[in-house]
Amino acid sequence: MKSKRKFIDIVATVAPTLATALGGPLAGVATRAIADQLLGKPDASPDEIEAAIAGATGADLVRLKEIEAKFAAEMKEAGVELERVAAMDRDSARARQVQMRDWTPTLLGLTIIVGFFGVLAWIFHSGLPERGGEVLLIMVGALGTMTTQVNNYFFGSTKKSGEKTEIIASLKGGRT
Fold first, then answer.
1. E strands, the chain, where?
2. Transmembrane ranges (predicted)?
3. CA-to-CA distance for 72 and 80, rounded, in angstroms?
4. How large is the average pLDDT for residues 146-155?
5. Which long-range contacts (CB under 8 A, 24 or more apart) does 158-166 make?
6. Please, what is the angle between helix 133-155 and helix 82-100, to 10°?
7. CA contacts within 13 A on the Cβ side of 5
8. H or E stretch including 108?
9. Other CB atoms within 10 A of residue 103 CB
10. What span, in angstroms and rounded, lies between the C-alpha atoms of 75 and 136?
11. Rounded to the nearest 5°, which phi and psi values hold at 104?
């Protein structure tokens, strides 16, 4: 599990467009692009891809960024709008929550946010422990990432907000 988290964090940091695709219905296409262009092995297993990215060199990360640019261009040429796919994915998750009257995402989000600020407050009050301080900082980083994801789920991301507004309006059949 730790390897998978590291893999996802690296891709999200270096190639966010690929990470968006990996988290949605285009995961297979994105995985094949990474396998083919980074490993030279189109049929590489997910474990092989994860291992290659987890142990990536600086040159590999540059190559991953190049793969992302090529992937985005190919998707655009094919008429696939990655942001639209991601927006529709988030919208379906929110619609499910409303339809099912499911409080799980809300409670989970609240727990993550309270945990993040609680750990930060504890660190500011008590300082880092002599043993395990590195692990605590890793946890704070993970909680910070999750807090951002919770915010994006409930409020949307500010990245390209103008484009998202247009996408949402076009999905609803209206104009902004």
1. none
2. 103-124, 136-155
3. 9
4. 82
5. 160/83, 163/83, 164/83, 164/87
6. 80
7. 9
8. helix 104-126
9. 10
10. 40
11. -55, -50
Read off the pTM.
0.42
The C-alpha atoms of residue 90 and residue 156 are separated, in whole angstroms, by 9
* Average pLDDT taken over every residue of the chain: 76
Cβ atoms of residues 82 and 20 within 8 Å: yes
Query: Using CA atoms, how far apart are residues 67 and 18, in angstroms rounded to an integer?
Result: 9
Q: Cβ distance 71 to 21 under 8 Å? A: yes
Residue with tokens 């880092």: 128
* Residue 92 vs residues 97, 137, 141, 174: alpha-carbon distances, Å: 9, 34, 28, 19
Q: Give the whole-angstrom CA distance, residue 158 versus residue 102.
A: 26
Measured distance CA(128)–CA(136) in Å, rounded = 8
Residues 6+ apart with CB under 8 A from 91: 168, 171
Q: Write the DSSP string, 114-153.
A: HHHHHHHHHHHHH---SSSHHHHHHHHHHHHHHHHHHHHH
pLDDT exceeds 60 at position 86: yes
Q: Say if residues 37 and 50 touch (Cβ distance below 8 Å).
A: no
Return the structure tokens found at 48. 């092989």
